[in-house]
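Dig into these lines:

——
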Amino acid sequence: MNFEELIDAVKDEEVTLDLDETQVKLASVGDGIILATVYLGELPDETLPELRREMMAANHLFQETGGATLSLEPGTRHAFLQRRCQVSGEGEEAFLNHLAVLVQKAEEWKARIFSIGDENDFAPDNPDLDELFSGQKIVFRV
Protein backbone atom coordinates (compact mmCIF):
# COMPACT_ATOMS: atom_id res chain seq x y z
CA MET A 1 0.00 0.00 0.00
CA ASN A 2 1.44 3.37 -0.93
CA PHE A 3 0.90 6.71 0.84
CA GLU A 4 -2.07 7.80 -1.27
CA GLU A 5 -3.79 4.43 -0.78
CA LEU A 6 -3.21 4.67 2.97
CA ILE A 7 -4.73 8.16 3.13
CA ASP A 8 -7.74 6.99 1.07
CA ALA A 9 -8.20 3.98 3.37
CA VAL A 10 -8.09 6.17 6.47
CA LYS A 11 -10.86 8.36 5.00
CA ASP A 12 -13.16 5.32 5.01
CA GLU A 13 -12.22 3.63 8.28
CA GLU A 14 -9.66 3.48 11.10
CA VAL A 15 -6.35 1.95 10.03
CA THR A 16 -3.77 0.37 12.34
CA LEU A 17 -0.07 0.50 11.50
CA ASP A 18 2.27 -2.01 13.11
CA LEU A 19 5.62 -0.28 13.54
CA ASP A 20 7.74 -3.00 15.12
CA GLU A 21 6.27 -3.28 18.62
CA THR A 22 4.14 -0.14 18.47
CA GLN A 23 0.66 0.04 17.02
CA VAL A 24 -0.47 3.40 15.67
CA LYS A 25 -4.17 3.88 14.95
CA LEU A 26 -4.99 6.37 12.23
CA ALA A 27 -8.41 7.98 11.90
CA SER A 28 -9.63 10.78 9.68
CA VAL A 29 -11.03 13.79 11.50
CA GLY A 30 -11.89 15.64 8.27
CA ASP A 31 -10.34 18.47 6.27
CA GLY A 32 -7.24 16.42 5.40
CA ILE A 33 -6.37 15.84 9.06
CA ILE A 34 -5.49 12.42 10.44
CA LEU A 35 -5.41 11.64 14.14
CA ALA A 36 -2.57 9.23 14.98
CA THR A 37 -2.99 7.48 18.35
CA VAL A 38 -0.73 5.18 20.35
CA TYR A 39 -2.02 3.33 23.40
CA LEU A 40 0.59 3.58 26.15
CA GLY A 41 -0.99 1.29 28.72
CA GLU A 42 -2.87 1.47 31.98
CA LEU A 43 -1.31 3.72 34.60
CA PRO A 44 -0.41 1.82 37.79
CA ASP A 45 -2.45 2.73 40.88
CA GLU A 46 0.63 3.33 43.01
CA THR A 47 2.04 6.01 40.71
CA LEU A 48 -1.18 7.45 39.24
CA PRO A 49 -1.05 10.88 40.95
CA GLU A 50 2.63 11.41 40.12
CA LEU A 51 2.17 10.30 36.49
CA ARG A 52 -0.84 12.59 36.02
CA ARG A 53 1.24 15.56 37.15
CA GLU A 54 4.13 14.56 34.88
CA MET A 55 1.79 14.11 31.91
CA MET A 56 0.21 17.52 32.42
CA ALA A 57 3.62 19.17 32.70
CA ALA A 58 4.85 17.33 29.59
CA ASN A 59 1.86 18.60 27.59
CA HIS A 60 2.69 22.23 28.43
CA LEU A 61 3.96 23.67 25.16
CA PHE A 62 4.49 20.05 24.02
CA GLN A 63 7.81 20.09 25.92
CA GLU A 64 8.14 16.32 26.30
CA THR A 65 5.72 15.05 23.69
CA GLY A 66 7.25 16.01 20.36
CA GLY A 67 4.13 17.93 19.33
CA ALA A 68 1.69 15.26 20.45
CA THR A 69 -0.72 15.26 23.40
CA LEU A 70 -0.76 12.85 26.33
CA SER A 71 -4.21 11.94 27.58
CA LEU A 72 -6.17 9.62 29.81
CA GLU A 73 -9.35 8.01 28.57
CA PRO A 74 -12.18 9.47 30.68
CA GLY A 75 -13.15 7.24 33.58
CA THR A 76 -10.12 4.95 33.17
CA ARG A 77 -6.37 4.91 33.72
CA HIS A 78 -5.68 4.13 30.04
CA ALA A 79 -3.01 6.50 28.69
CA PHE A 80 -2.64 7.57 25.07
CA LEU A 81 -0.32 9.73 22.98
CA GLN A 82 -2.05 11.42 20.05
CA ARG A 83 -1.05 13.73 17.25
CA ARG A 84 -3.07 15.49 14.60
CA CYS A 85 -1.35 15.35 11.20
CA GLN A 86 -2.29 17.67 8.35
CA VAL A 87 -1.74 15.39 5.36
CA SER A 88 -3.19 17.63 2.68
CA GLY A 89 -0.48 20.15 1.98
CA GLU A 90 2.28 18.64 4.13
CA GLY A 91 2.69 15.42 2.18
CA GLU A 92 4.21 12.01 2.75
CA GLU A 93 7.61 12.99 4.15
CA ALA A 94 6.16 15.28 6.82
CA PHE A 95 3.56 12.66 7.74
CA LEU A 96 6.21 9.95 8.14
CA ASN A 97 8.37 12.30 10.22
CA HIS A 98 5.39 13.02 12.50
CA LEU A 99 4.78 9.27 12.88
CA ALA A 100 8.44 8.60 13.65
CA VAL A 101 8.49 11.22 16.40
CA LEU A 102 5.15 9.96 17.76
CA VAL A 103 6.46 6.38 17.97
CA GLN A 104 9.71 7.54 19.59
CA LYS A 105 7.86 9.60 22.21
CA ALA A 106 5.36 6.79 22.82
CA GLU A 107 8.20 4.38 23.59
CA GLU A 108 9.78 6.94 25.92
CA TRP A 109 6.48 7.41 27.77
CA LYS A 110 5.85 3.67 28.03
CA ALA A 111 9.27 3.31 29.64
CA ARG A 112 8.55 6.22 31.94
CA ILE A 113 5.12 4.94 32.96
CA PHE A 114 6.32 1.49 33.83
CA SER A 115 9.67 2.39 35.39
CA ILE A 116 8.68 5.33 37.58
CA GLY A 117 9.91 4.84 41.09
CA ASP A 118 12.85 2.72 39.91
CA GLU A 119 16.30 3.68 41.08
CA ASN A 120 17.32 4.74 37.57
CA ASP A 121 16.10 8.10 36.38
CA PHE A 122 14.20 8.21 33.13
CA ALA A 123 16.53 9.18 30.32
CA PRO A 124 14.93 8.98 26.88
CA ASP A 125 16.90 7.94 23.85
CA ASN A 126 16.79 10.41 21.01
CA PRO A 127 17.61 8.54 17.80
CA ASP A 128 17.41 10.50 14.61
CA LEU A 129 14.53 9.73 12.25
CA ASP A 130 16.67 7.61 9.92
CA GLU A 131 17.70 5.40 12.84
CA LEU A 132 14.13 5.13 14.09
CA PHE A 133 12.78 3.80 10.80
CA SER A 134 15.83 1.94 9.51
CA GLY A 135 15.07 -1.73 9.17
CA GLN A 136 11.49 -1.19 10.31
CA LYS A 137 8.87 -3.54 9.02
CA ILE A 138 5.70 -1.52 8.56
CA VAL A 139 2.47 -3.48 8.19
CA PHE A 140 -0.70 -1.71 7.08
CA ARG A 141 -3.97 -3.20 8.31
CA VAL A 142 -7.34 -1.95 7.17
Remarks:
- The CA atoms of residues 28 and 34 lie 5 Å apart.
- Residues 119-126 have pLDDT under 50 and may be disordered.
- Strands lie at 15-19, 22-30, 33-42, 69-72, 78-86, 138-141.
- The two ends are 10 Å apart (CA to CA).
